[in-house]
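step: validate -> pass
step: tokenize input -> pass
step: predict -> running
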Amino acid sequence: MKRRPIPTLRLPFDGSLNLPGSKSEANRAIVAAALCRGKTTIRNATPCDDVRYLVGGLQAMGYRVAWITEDCLEVEGGIPAQPSETSAREIFCGNAGTAIRFLCSVAVVTPGKWEIVGDQHMAKRPISDLVQAWSSFGVAIKAPTACPPVQIEGGLTKGGNLKLDASKSGQYLSSLLLVASGLRGGLRIELASELASAGYVELTKQVLGSFGVDVKSTGPSSSSSTVIEVKETQSISPGNFDVEGDWSAAGCFYCLAELANSVFRPGNLRDDSLQSDRALLQHLADLRARGDLEINISETPDQLMNLALVAGRRSAKTRFVGAANLRIKECDRLAITARELQGIGLKVEIEEDGLLLEPTRQVVGADINPEADHRIAMMGAIFGSLVPGVQIRDPQCVAKSYPRFFDDLKKLGDQTRPLVLLGMRAAGKSSLGRQLALVLGLEFIDSDSLFENEFDDISQFVEQYGWPDFRDAEAKIIADSLRPGVLIAAGGGAIENPGTRKLLRDKALVVWIDEEWETIQMRLRT
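step: predict -> pass
step: emit ->
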């Protein structure tokens, strides 16, 4: 099996990235566009496996969906009037949960006979609750093993009332909602259970709202007494739909920044996003507290792996709860996460619906076997960025959600926080700085040399204009030079300027170079 070694970070980073488009939002928008009236251009639809399988499935059913650039789709809406030529053939969805669940409901309303299948992992992931909901409605649908494959005879046009058990996955409810407005009389859904991942259902409602579909709920949110209703509506294309950046992908880099004393600046995330994984930031804040903690991640289960690494360095116990549905993800994500964390030296116990981590003294590099699970592979890469000797088996599995993950990880690591060496004249900061910059692959800048290139000799400048003017000019040079990937040698007096002190404190790693006074005097004499 192919392995990918993970290089450790040279220094903490201060970097920015644009995240891939959220596959969760993209897939909802693609289905909504396929069923609406009009043409929709969907931008920032990163062609990860989950999106590609959904697009391929829609195309196989006869929907007019086409890539016009690498990450831009054009969708001509409308249910095909006649079964497509590929009707009754298999529609393969790999291990893409959103694709297979959404396509099941699309197949219900699309004329033809369909068999929707997945890979060996998907064949173990339950779908019977969604199948049962449609079956009770009179649809010819069956899943003999309670998991894919699913056989469907489509063409349903009339709506009505049905019950749904959405305790295993909120995607079942989202699947129903995406097709509901096109049914005569709409759809009224009574939840027969607590709702898993309610935040992603809210995302579905938001996307449908962009296409003119209103989803109304009565009863407590996510409870078994909730009733959700979608009236018959002719959904209409908004023309353009821009997929927001993926908070799930960002979780990896936020956790790496937390562990590496670094700064991550996402370029395309929305602070008001309905993506549930936005709550990761609050979980990170919680993990900075002292003492034993219990963190409920029922709305952010995909971040358990990343957060567990952060919890692993704490000096107290951390219990994660609300993660039972991780057992039915791409793999038994709860068990595999625990196994891999134990393999790197963390003290982890599996509990009924989560993990318990206890303080650990030492971690070690290891081969990470993600069992084809993209989230676990990314967790391993975060750890390998901090600890030498980590390799990821089957690294290409990250393509499920983030094809360019390893490239972006390197890009972020290359944006090292500026390193500033401060010291008295002749303390050795410039000599050390040149050698250190060469070893670390950084650009070396000597602030005194830059000053003299611009203003001539420092002592003459000070004699003519005074120290305050020199410090102001020096401060501007340092501010202009302070960027990722540089090592700056500057005089110790630079921190007399309040603005420079604040800038260095906020933006740089600062090292004071000290030397014995006798040695400095000797160097100045020579």
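step: describe -> The mean pLDDT is 94.
step: cleanup -> pass
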